[in-house]
Design goal:
Layout lengths: L10 H10 L44 H16 L3 E12 L4 E15 L2 E12 L6 E10 L2 E6 L4 E6 L4 H8 L7 H7 E11 L2 E10 L2 H4 L4 E7 L4 E8 L5 E11 L17 E3 L4
């Protein structure tokens, strides 16, 4: 199936994807149905990172509540001392109707705690219809102070989304996997521990999440997190829609508690940058 036959990726879904693959640090539900405010999101705006912790080795499956309890307690401990995190990412967007990956984006994502909130900056460096067709397509997405700001150097455009009443929902997803506590995770999801699975050489704890919010489930009815048991950081996340589409988010070169320059969390706009504020 050629590019002309591909099904367009929903604008709002792409915006939400960006955060889903990126975070559960502070604990809130994925804003899959985050509302009409995000309907104006531009194309190629994607997600991503999540967090938890688990036991190592083996591909065994377990519903042992004590095992899950240990994972969640570890998350609580990591969250309490969280300061910064960064990682290289690859986001793969799959569409079931054509059974293909239709969009791939790569880059670097940064997180830091600032007061009571977690800030996130995603630097999308390349994008394409597959990993073999990536081309430079710079894009910067900043989440802070209850707003999402996306800057595209070409065509020198800044798009600002004020999350308003949806802020809590999106925040919990923005920090999903990078600093989020086990307690917050349980508030937003039904969590099941599914044993361990090796991801990039790491025997990662596998957690299946079902959003408690009916609003969220209409867009993202299931999520899977793979947690590095040594770092307590997600090495991979997968988000499923009721239609069978999914986004697979792969993290590598993860660093925690390292100083991140303040300039990283500033958008390099110009004096001629056009600003848009989609609403409704």
């Amino acid at each position: 199936m050629g590019a002309r036959d591909r099904v367009p990726i929903g604008l709002r879904m792409k915006l939400l994807w960006l955060f889903l693959s990126v975070v559960v640090v502070s604990g809130a539900p994925v804003p899959s149905g985050a509302g009409a405010d995000l309907r104006g999101a531009p194309q190629n705006f994607d997600c991503s990172f999540l967090r938890a912790f688990g036991a190592a080795t083996g591909a065994q499956k377990s519903d042992d509540p004590l095992t899950l309890e240990a994972i969640l307690k570890k998350m609580d401990a990591v969250s309490a001392s969280f300061t910064t995190a960064q990682a290289e990412f690859e986001w793969d967007n799959y569409q079931r109707v054509i059974d293909e990956i239709v969009d791939v984006q790569t880059g670097t994502i940064f997180y830091r705690r600032s007061g009571k909130e977690i800030q996130m900056m995603a630097e999308v460096k390349k994008a394409g219809e597959s990993a073999d067709s990536l081309k430079p397509e710079p894009k910067y997405v900043l989440f802070s102070e209850g707003k999402i700001r996306m800057y595209q150097p070409k065509p020198d455009q800044l798009t600002v989304y004020d999350l308003g009443k949806d802020r809590a929902d999106l925040e919990s997803y923005v920090v999903l996997g990078f600093g989020g506590s086990g307690q917050d995770l349980q508030k937003a999801f039904d969590v099941k521990y599914q044993g361990t699975e090796t991801i990039n050489g790491v025997a990662a704890a596998k957690l299946e999440l079902t959003p408690k919010s009916e609003k969220v489930r209409k867009n993202y009815n299931r999520m899977i997190l793979w947690i590095d048991p040594e770092m307590g950081i997600s090495v991979q996340q997968q988000f499923f829609t009721p239609q069978g589409d999914y986004r697979l988010c792969k993290n590598s070169a993860i660093k925690v508690k390292e100083k991140i320059d303040n300039d990283v969390f500033k958008l390099k706009t110009t004096g001629k940058t056009q600003t848009l504020s989609p609403r409704g």
